[in-house]
Each structure stands twice: as C-alpha cells, then as structure tokens.
Description:
Blueprint: H1 2-25, H2 33-37, H3 49-62, E1 68-73, E2 80-85, H4 87-93, H5 95-102, E3 108-112, H6 115-119, H7 121-130, H8 137-149, H9 153-165, H10 176-186, H11 189-201, H12 203-207, H13 217-224, E4 230-231, H14 234-248, H15 252-260, H16 269-278, H17 280-284, H18 286-301, H19 304-307, E5 322-323, E6 329-335, E7 342-349, E8 360-371, E9 379-380, E10 386-387, E11 395-402, E12 412-424, E13 427-436, E14 460-461, E15 464-475
Parallel strand pairs: 1-3, 4-5
Antiparallel strand pairs: 1-2, 6-15, 7-8, 8-11, 9-10, 12-13, 12-15, 14-15
Amino acid sequence: MVKQVALIHAWMLLLALCLQLGAAAAGKLPLSDSAQDGGGSGGDTISHSLTLVQRLEALLLQGNGSDVSLRVETPSADEVKMIQAHSLVLSLQSPVFEEMLLSRNSSTLVLKESSDCAAVFDKFIRYLYCGEISVRLDQATPLHKLATKYQVLGLQQGITQYMTQNLAQESPSGHVASWYEYALQAGDVTLRDSCLQYLAWNLSSVLQSGEWVTISSQLLMSLLQRSDLVLQSEMELFAALEAWIIQNEPDGLTAENALRAVRYAMMPPRELFRLQTQSSVLARYQESVRDLLYMSYQFHSSSPMHMAKYFDVNCSLFMPRNYLSPVWGSPWIISNPTRDDRSTSFQTQLGPSGHDASKRVTWNALFSPRWLPLSMRPMYTETGAMQPTRVEGGRPRIIITPATSSADFAGVNFQKTVLVMAQQQGKVVVKHVYNFHQSTEENGDFLAEADLYHRTSEYLIDSSLFLHIVVKPLYQTLITTKN
Length: 483
C-alpha cells in the first residue's frame, strides 16, 4: 500500500513538472531565468520540453497512473464517453475540476454535457494536458462553452481570439450570426461586439448568404438601427428585410418595428412608388409606416432648406448609411501606397432629396502616405536654425474637399467616410471605417496599425491599398416654424 501511494506521488510530481514544461513549449508559460541558463550566467539552454509534452499526451492516451474516470453523458443519454485522467492535471488547470475532485465520493466523475460539447470533450481534456488545441469553425462554440464552464481562462480567451480572427472564413451556412447569439448569451462582450461590427460593415455579402434569414429578431433590430451599415443601397436592405419577414413570419409588432427602421427617404420616389404597388409585405403593414412614407415623399418634393423649417431632418429617416452606390462615392485603389502622394476626383449627388437629384458635387481626394502632423514638423528659431524635433516618420492621411464652393451647400454638412478593405482567409472584407469632415487627421488613428510595407500584409491586395470613399450629406435643422 505504501509503495502504491509513493508511486502515485511520484506520478503527481512528474505531471506537475511536465505540465509546466509543456506550457512553456506551447508558449503559455516562460521558463524561469535559472531554467534558461542552467542556474548560472553564460550557460546554454538544453530543452526537451517538446518530448515531455509528447510523453504527457501519451500518458493521457494510455491512461497510465490514472486516478479518476470522467464519464461524459449527454442529456438524452444516447452517447457516453469514458476518459481516464489524472486528478493533479485537472485540478491545476481548472478550479471547477478541483472543487469537484475534492467533493467526490467515488473514482468516477459523471459530467453532463450537451451533444456538441461531448463531441469535442476529448480535445478539451487534451488541451489541459498539452496546452495546445486544433480548432474548426464548427467546434469553436462548444469548446468555448467548455472553457467557460470549467473556468479554463487561457483556452476561453484563445477561442474568443480564434473566433474574432475567423469571422470572414467561408462556411456552408454561415457562422457569424450564431457566434453573435452565443456571445450574447455567454456575456462575451469582445466576441459580441466583433461579430456585430463585422455584420454591419460587410452587410451586403451577409444579405446574399443563407445565414441572413436565420438571424434573430433581436440581431435584426440591432443592425437596422445602425447608420454605419455598409451596403449598396437602402433598397437592398428593404429587399433583404422583406425576405426575412416572409421566411420567419414574425409577430406583427416585430415586423412593424423592423419596417419602421427602414430609411425610406433614402430611396428615390420611383422606387418608393414601386414598393407601395408591388411589395406584399409593405401592403400588409402599410398603415404602420404610412407616416414615414408620407414624410419621405415630402422630403423628395421640396427643398431641404424648406423641409428643415418644419421637420427634424437630423433624425435617422433622413440620414444616409454607408452606401456603396456610385451616387454616393467611389472606390479608390492605391498601388504601392507607401511610394508618394496620390490624388483622385469623383462626383456624388448633392443630397438624397429628389430636389437635389440632378445636382452633382465634384470632390478632390489627396492621399499622403507620410504626412507629418504640425507637432512633428521641424521647428525654426529666430536665427533660422532648425531645432531638433521628434524623429518618427509620418503617417497616412486623406484630405477630401469640394472642387468648388456653391450656394447649394447651404444647410448641408458633408460627412466623409473611408472604408478600408483587407484580405482575410482569401476574402475581401471591410476592416476599418473612418468618419471625418475634411481630413482623416480628425481621427488621429487613420491606418495607425496597418502594415503597408510588406506584400503579405492583409491590408494589401496585389500590392495595392483598397479603399472606398463615401460622402454622406447631413441636413441641418433650421428654426422650426410653429403653427
């Protein structure tokens, strides 16, 4: 009996040593200075940590020295999985396992898991032994559930990072919306916000996928209320919403709230008329949006200056989103973006009102890859000698100005938006959205983290920087005339 206890203690010490060295090999835990130099200065490092990790994995697979059995059951009991494990490893890696092992009354722990979690439980346990794991898109959510349930924080954070970095990955039925719903339920704010931002900034591609009609009503409303949606036009959004309503048949209040979030004033009058005569969904709920349609027709039939005397034109109904239509902006592909300054010109419609439909504004855009802020420019003394200043290089900047001033601009502010594309998993996605009135200098962080120098950078596609400039006319409310 004493010999058996001593053997168990020896296994426990070996497991602790292997676990520490294994984590170091996986980049999870740095070796101490004494371990690096052999306890003295000037020594060389001899590392067999990878071998130890392999032996630790073999220990798990073979079950040698196991002192606890994990019985993984699903709610329907149609699947049972038995895993031979070691209490020390489980306790060191998970406070939940530690508490369960202290209060157990047998050598078997019965664990109730959902079917998707049970399917990846072997992977989860292997991570506890080896400090590494391979993940597929369909395995991310159940692994995150297990890491959260058993409080394995390193794995939980690692899976969250994996998910935020793989939002653009192609999948048969889509995964971003389901990840958003899971993050909302799990309280993972980082993952929730990353999913919502990706969906908003790449909405055109999402609307064309099979995932769109499966999203929840809560996520639908979260998207419809945003002004930073990137899509072709408001008509594209209405068509997608109509398909969602037909597919999901929501209750009347949900459908009405969704339809009232559409910005009908951003549609040309002829499109509004077509919707009223041809859309079955709009015909069914027309009474709930009649006031919005009426205001939209008024908006298109009168000048914005006149409209602003009687209505709050700063409300969302009259505020454009980030439309990719040529009417509101232009793509700009900048080859070799670190080489020198570039410029381009394009035209947009003066405003979304039908009153301005025939009016165009010409814009000049200047891109400077190494512009220096005033605080970083060389300073001169009274004698003309240059004073030393900060030596950091310049940073990218874009300036967008109208080619000519016009009285037609009265009552209109122009917000400029630059969409910055990146290539992720072979797919071009919107990586950043910058809003400003004249220059990206107003942001202070324009392309601050972008690598524009290496061909392998995700910000470069065929050595070029892909941008899309959107000009958003925002009307100003004047003094309201009271009846």
